[in-house]
Amino acid sequence: MKHEHITVVGAGVSGLYVAWRLLQAGHDPSRLTILEATDRIGGRLWSLRMQPDSSLPAELGGMFFNDQQPLVYGLCSRVFDLPRETVEPQPDFAWLRATRFRIDRFSDPSVQPYKLAPDERGLSYYQLLDLACTRIAPEIKQLWPQDPHGSREATLDYLRKHEFDGRPLWRWGFWNLLSRVISHEAWLALRGMTGIYALLANWNAFDAMVSIVVEQSGKWYRLTHGYQHLPEALAAAVEKAAASIHRRHVLRRIEPAGNRLRLSVRADGADREWESDRLVLAIPRAPIVRLIEASPALRDGGLAARVDSVEGAPACKIFLSFDEPWWRNVPDGPGRIAAGTYGVSHTDLPMRQCYYLGVDEGSGQALMMASYADTEAVSFWRALTPDSGRGPALESDLSDLALTEIRRELSEMHGVDVPHPTAGRFIDWSVWPYGGGWHSWMPGWKSWEVTDAMCAPVPGLALHVCGESYSTAQGWSEGALRSAEDMLRRCFDLAAPDWLDPAG
Question: Is 0.85 topped by the overall pTM?
Fold first, then answer.
């Protein structure tokens, strides 16, 4: 294996991790090539400075990780020792159905605007979600993480085997199940209070339960200088070992060439071909679909059959900077965010979620994520971009139309006239090659089996797939890394790294 030529496609966190682990295992760096379609590394980990002298990053993609995510936590704390800070994003207030209230008052029926069923009233929204999950899977409260003496694997095993109304969870859509166990008003309330449409949509109910029950535990962190520093650290280690990362190289087609693979790559306006012994696709679903369409050898077998087991979730963000943190000066009551807090507010307006990120020590500017929207809300903002959403731009300055609208929504939500920002940025993760901010498993698929099959999905081809899209922790860097690590152990016979917590 050490002398095989290996090509890794994708310089996001999973692709860079694969390359780094292979080099750590002694692979010849001259026989390892990384191809990246865009002009940057990091994939959906992207930390932007809103001003030239900014020190507080705007996280255009992933934001946080926790100590129950052994791969990402181990890399950040043990391997690269990246500067990090604990974070406790606290839900602050909501503006739902034209009603402004503190989120901790949701349990008061006279405050929140939803007509809940009698057995749903008086609960916090966490308790309401817990009620739904317990009615779906009654024994879940006796398992980890509720039982600290239990194990993650035991919880997953229970959810894999559990049936609701004679049907396993993986065959249900999550919305279908929620409609059976809580009222429609409760579903609408949770949809508003969580701020994420996709979470309560009709994706695979098994994976939805895992996301809610399993993946949310732990102590939370952010990287002080931006989450992008993790893929940058991996890339620096790869390049220090003399392996090559080629940006703006697009893999267009794959063909068998005896015992090898012939790759057709577009770079600098010209097509090139080279051969590789093994190929790792550390890329999202959308470019994999395009490769299948262009490569007859990929149309038969497990890859084409399983590619539609997931779908991309449209997601976008708007960041604004201001001369001062105006949200701290809102009159007392819902809408005011106290100094020293890392607040989060939710609304049913198209902006959906608002994060108050604090004051930048470098520029003195106040930074907020003014919108974090997903699924149908993305189309609202996309149409306000300079090209009305028809272009391929991933991120751009905020258009005048979008700026007017986001100020209007912020003002309505907080009950004050929001000042004009000093800068604004918009990012739409739905565009090529990402196809969404994250991916979701479709009902009817056993995600854990598909993930295993993606290790070598096409019989007879030394082709391997990893990354967030087909992982067991979609939407998280840990999912991308877990997928890559599992592939490396099963398909490349690598041993577990010594820095990894044995629980991982």
Answer: yes
